Amino acid sequence: MTHTVCPGQDTRYWKPGDIFEVACPACGGKVEFFKDDVSRKCSCGHRVENPRVGLGCARWCEHAAECLGPEGSELAGGSQTAQFRARLIAAMIEQFGTDTKRIDHALSVLAHAEAIRDIEGGDALVITAAALLHDIGIQEAERIYGSSAPRYQEELGPSIARYIMEGLGIDEATVEHVVRIVGSHHSARDIDTIEFRIIWDADALVNLGEEEKDRPTDWWERTISKVFRTSAGRQRARQLSVGPND
Fold this sequence. Notes:
The protein is mainly α. The protein has two domains: about 1-80, no CATH class; about 80-245, Orthogonal Bundle (Hypothetical protein af1432), CATH 1.10.3210. The protein contains ten helices and four strands. The strands form two sheets. It has a two-stranded antiparallel ribbon. α3 (about 100-120) packs across α8 and α4 packs across α7 (about 170-180). It is globular, with a radius of gyration of 19 Å. The chain starts with 18 loop residues before the first strand and ends with a helix.
């Protein structure tokens, strides 16, 4: 039996904004996306997530694998972690709304965290959720206190993260672990699990890449030795430091 092209995937029905560019978290270059792309590879070789992907039909459509490819098929019916990952990305984007700076930051932290986890291990769902939700209290901090100071993020973020995860049906143990990470992701005062250390390093990698590109080599090495908490994080930081000082 044949089937017609899905209206959601048929470009005749697309609107302005359904084709757009996203900054690569690895090199800063622009990657062009169609709205239904799950991810695309940048010219630097880094695979970039689509922050606006809409795959609602993949939850029920029998042609999801054919239409969206293997990544879409995994999101439609694959592992529980893969499904939660897609829902957490959507929930994070909904929470931040038009704040693309925070959305891009969360996705960049996720990319680094997953790469570090491939080497260091750790609970995949905890790392995914914590990477995406670690800064989730920043807008509320700005609204209430007029400041995005770390202490306000750590005060207000946990309850928002808990609300999002419980709404998605994530198990209690994972929720509690992630909430502790969100509540200590700047101060490190209440937790020191491998998952926390991975998020700490992933966040530091993004912040270093954004803010410290022109620092000299000796500054990078001192900072790497002092800041990073995993071997894989230190290795990625040294790779990052090569660019501005080569």
